[in-house]
Please model this.
Amino acid sequence: MVSIGVQGGVYRQAACLQCPARPRMLCAGMTNELLPALGSIATDVRLDKGETLFYEGDDAKYVYNVKKGYVRLSRLGVDGRRQVMGFLTVGDYMGHTGKSQYAISAEALTDAEVCRFSRSDLESLLSQYPQLERQFHHMTAGLLDDMLDLLFTLGRKNAIERVASFLDNALDRQIQSDEPATQIWLPMTRADIADFLGLTLETVSRAFSRLRKEGIIDIEHAHTIHILQRARLIDIASGDG
Model:
């Protein structure tokens, strides 16, 4: 893990304006003129693939915004079984908690870069800039909505519906980032997907095979999926398949 440090002045302002995370999540709450205030409390941190940013149980001193790459959030049960809590990419926010320690671990699925903010510095900035505070509340409400959607998926959908929902959500995120609308790049393994959806590896593999057999997707290789029939994928995800 490499901490690059805080660059001040014109350099930092230009870097923030050009950052791919600029229009999303936390940074979206600041005007271009006020963005340097947020940048002034940020430290850039680079992660190699497989490197852990923080562990479950570490002191929760910082929050993070993803600038590049993919990060996996996970948690271990008392029996040692893993639950993947999410897959984050550019613009996503993590580390915010009401507790003194992190309840999850964060590991880079690819080479990644994040902005790190001290919790105390960010809380001070929120009190100074009402528009940033409003964006922060909007952002956390959106994260809660995402969690409720996941709970519904895990509680009410069968295996094929869960996998279809996962693929459709991944495609949605790419479209929002102006990336290809018919092809998904999945940096995570099938085991990661299984642990995220509460399924076994074998069940996830069978679901991918079924979607491929029915002509809904094509699998170029383990990490690249082509969506051939999105309407059909949505039908399956919603239980109409």
The CA atoms of residues 192 and 200 lie 10 Å apart.
